[in-house]
Amino acid sequence: MRTKLILGIFLVAAITARAADTPSPALIVLNKHDANLAVVDPASGNVVGRVATGVEPHEVAVSTDGTLAFVANWGTAREAGRTLSVIDLVALKELHRVDLGPLRRPHGIAFAGGKAYFTAETNKLIGRYDPATNQVDWLLGTGQETTHMVIVSRNLTTIFTSNIDSDSISIFERTSFDRKNETWKHTVVPVGGGPEGFDVSPDGYELWAAHTRGGGVSVVNLQTKQVTETIKLEAKRLSRLKFTPDGAHVLITDFDAGELMILDVQTHKEIKRLKMGRFPEGIQIVPDGSRAYIAVAGDNTIVVLDLKTWDVTGHITPGAEPDGMAWAVRR
Questions:
Q1: How does pLDDT run across 60-95, given as a tens digit for each residue?
Q2: What is the CATH number of the domain that holds 142?
C-alpha cells in the first residue's frame, strides 16, 4: 500500500510538473526541417517542450481555450503531405495524426467555432476538421490554383483564401445556415502576382494581399470586393503580411531580400525596413500589440520586435527552419 501511495504521489507530481512547464501565454512555433512543434516561454525565450509532427509542418492554429494545436503537414517538394497533427499543448503530445486521404498539401489553417479549417493546395479546396469526432466533416472547393492561406471570420459567415497560382483572393460568404444544405457565395478577386500572405484589417473593411511576384500589395475593399489600390514596393518576394491589432500598421516579410517592411495603413507608405536575416517567413503579433515575432527560417531563429519603438529586442532559437507560429492562452 505504501509503495502504491508513493507511486501515486510521483504520478500526480509528474502530471502537475508537465502542466506547469507549459506556460500561458505561450508562443507556438513549427520547425519545418525538424518536423516538430516547439512551445516557447515568451518571458524567457526558452523552449519548454517539443512534439513531433508530420513532415514539413507549415502552419499552426490553436483552439480558443489554448489547449490544442492543429498543424498542417505540407510534406516535401517530392512527396505531398496528407496529414494534420492534433497536439495537446498541456501534456505536450500528439493526440492524432489525421489521415486526410486524397487531400494533399494541407497548408493554411485557422480555428473557429470549435473546428479547424485548412486548405488543401493540390485539391483546390478548404476542409474542416472536427476535434470532437476526429473527422473531416466538410469540404468547400475554390476552383483556384494553389489555395494557400485561410482566414475564417469569428461568426463563421465569411472565409478568405489566397490562391497563389491563380493570382486571386477567394471570398466566401455564407448565404444559408441550414446545416444540411449549407450554401456559399464565392467571389474571386483578381490581385497581383502570386498572392501568398494576406490579412483582414481589424475593422473588417479591407484585405491586404502580398505578392510573391512583382513586389506589391493589393488593397481589397471588402464591401465592393474590388482592388482599390496596388501599393508598389521595392521588394523581391513577399511572404507573410499581418496587421497590428490597432490597425495602424502592416508588417510584411520579404523572403528573398531578408527584410521586414513596415507600412502605415492610413498613408499606404513604407515607414521602416529592417534586416532580419536569411529567409524571413512567419509573423506572429502579440494580441496586446506590444511586440511581434518574425520567423527567420534560414538562420533557425525568431526575431523579437518591439512594436512601439521598432527595435529588435531579442532572438529565440526554436529549432531548424521555423515558419508558422501561433499564440496560445489557456482559458
A1: 999 999 999 999 999 999 999 999 999 999 999 999
A2: 2.130.10.10
